[in-house]
Amino acid sequence: MKNVSQAESIKITQIQVPDKYRRSGDVVEDDKLRHSIERTGIQQPLVVSKLNDGKFVLIDGFRRLEVAKYLKHLQVPCVIDDLPKGVPPEEYRDRIRFILDEHRQDLFPSQRASLIKTLMANFKMNNKEVGEYLGVDATTIHNWLVVGKLIPEVQKAVDSGQITEHSARVFDGMTDTGQKRIWRDKKADFKKLSGGKLHQDIRKKYHPDQNPDFYCKPERVAMKLKRKKQKRASVSRPKISASEMEMLSKDVELREAELKDAEKDLKEIKHEISLAVNVIRPIMQNEKLFQLVPADIKPQLKRFAEIYI
């Protein structure tokens, strides 16, 4: 995991899956995943580690792998995780699995920030590498880490849902002194103002030129604010004619109609899958019933069971 390489295609037949890494599927979620992969392919690479015989062991991505098999894909995109020296391969894989499982859970924002910080420290990773590993972009990782730099009072407010993470980004780059003062003075505004308006209001009232002790790098913040002001003054909004506005409106209406149709189709598919599960499950669980199934249908039932049961 020290050197996370770019994803590369690996033959499905080369990937081994330890029994303890297999996950039971959810009918609705797996159906969404199947439709997504059918349309755009696998967007988040699987994570594997390489064995001495040239094959690979799956660390993360069992459901994606199973859907790819169902869709008869021959290869899947993977990130090959380099095992660190001196660490038993199975122990390392289990540890990474634990980290990824923790990432999936509904952690408090402060817990998530702590987890990512530990991950970066232990494996010498930057924001981009962590983002690639967890399936998000570097900006998202940065925003998540902001919560870990907040004073306890603000962290508690974010974790409890009193204020949003977006609003809390106002404190990005601020010292404890600045955070304490602004939280004391502007606490009520965090519930009333949007993140952008709040950021603008606070930077104006507590400008780094007048309050340098509020910022870790006041000169940089001041320069950034100056650039934004200059850009705003030179930008003009494009003019949209009445006919163009009408076309845009019709396009939006068309997209909304398409979305409603897609939602209707998905609802019907979910219903059909639920009905099929109730029929196929007892067949798969009873060897005598399964033997009565025509030979050409058996592979399809097995694949259906792998995905949905």
DSSP strand count:
5
Tally of contiguous helical segments? 15
What structural class do the secondary elements suggest? alpha/beta
- Return the string of H and E elements: EEHEEHEHHHHHHHHHHHHH
| Residue runs with pLDDT of under 50 for 5 or more positions | 1-5
Radius of gyration: 26 Å
CATH architecture of the domain at 1-87: Alpha-Beta Complex
Helix percent reads 55-70%
Q: In percent, how much strand structure appears in the residues?
A: 5-15%
**What shape does the CA trace take?**
extended
Distance between the termini: 33 Å
CATH topology of the domain at 1-87: Conserved hypothetical protein from pyrococcus furiosus pfu- 392566-001, ParB domain
Largest sheet properties: 5 strands, mixed
Rounded mean pLDDT score: 80
Describe it:
With 309 residues, the chain is an alpha/beta fold. The model is unreliable at 1-5 (pLDDT under 50). The chain has helices at residues 27-40, 62-70, 89-104, 109-123, 127-134, 138-148, 152-160, 165-168, 176-186, 189-192, 195-205, 218-234, 242-285, 287-291, 298-308; strands spanning 8-11, 15-16, 46-50, 56-60, 75-81. The chain is built from 15 helices and 5 strands. Among the domains are: 1-87, Conserved hypothetical protein from pyrococcus furiosus pfu- 392566-001, ParB domain, CATH 3.90.1530.10; 260-308, no CATH class. Helix 1 crosses helix 2, helix 5 crosses helix 6 (138-148) and helix 13 (242-285) crosses helix 15 (298-308). Helices cover 61% and strands 7% of the residues. A 5-stranded mixed β-sheet has the order 1-5-3-4-2.
